Amino acid sequence: MIKENLQEIYQQMAAAAIRSGRRPEDVKLVAVSKRKPIAAIKCALEAGQHSFGENYLQDAIEKITEIPQARWHFIGRIQSNKTKLIAQHFNVVETVDRLKIAEALEKHLATLGKSLDAYVQVNIGDEDQKAGVSVEELEGLVRVFNSFSHLKLIGLMGLPPFNEEPEATRKHFRQLRRLAQSLEDKKIVDHPLGLSMGMSADFEVAIEEGATLVRVGTAIFGDRE
Ligand SMILES: *Cc1c(COP(=O)(O)O)cnc(C)c1O
After folding, report:
1. 129, pLDDT greater than 90
2. CA separation for the pair 218, 225 (Å, rounded)
3. CA-to-CA distance for 62 and 179, rounded, in angstroms?
4. Average pLDDT estimate for 59-67
């Protein structure tokens, strides 16, 4: 099933890219494997899927140790006492949302002599319970990356308010794209920013709005317990 699901998602992704005038190869998939067993990940890997996303650190480290050849994205909430392990084990961190975390990651990476790609998570729905830097504080946080040499800002990540109707989320995706554009226009970053947005329910809408990375779990691996 996993293999068939992946094939279908790749096709849907390519179709969404093409109908919005984009190139299919400019949109990548992160298979969100949280709470899924190693066997499921191996199955996806065999089907050609290379990047995986995990939220729970201890689980993730076991999986990474078992499957080091994949590319691992940390997509969970970051506690500051976990930054060292994230720096050690992951290839990408998508949920940097405050100065303290960014600085701690940079410090550990410098010690390790390693670099790590990062997305800043933006609280685009402005929800109290959600992680992510506020729109007001985004620019300040992004500027800090200019003084780093190991933690490399490659984009913005958004986790909009859940809505069963994917069209309702479009405006949030669009807002994230505009925020990235504005940081580029103001030369706060000196390179184009990627956009990690869109999940099982709404990845096609996200791609139409400019996503360069979609994070899909359920549609690949089935429901989580
Ligand atoms: C779980 C999770 C996903 C995947 O969600 P699905 O609805 O299963 O596709 C994507 N992003 C984050 C941050 C998640 O925690």
Report:
1. no
2. 11
3. 36
4. 98
CA of 163 to the centre of ligand 1 (A): 13
23 vs 95: CA distance, rounded Å? 26
Backbone angles phi, psi at 218, to 5 degrees: -50, -45
**Does the pTM of the predicted model rise above 0.85?**
yes
Average pLDDT, the chain: 97
List pocket residues of ligand 1, CB cut-off 6 Å. Answer: 32, 34, 55, 75, 159, 199-200, 215-219
CA angle 215, 216, 218 (to 5 degrees): 150
pLDDT exceeds cutoff 90 at 9: yes
171 Cα–ligand 1 center, Å: 19
* Residue 163 scores a pLDDT above 90: no
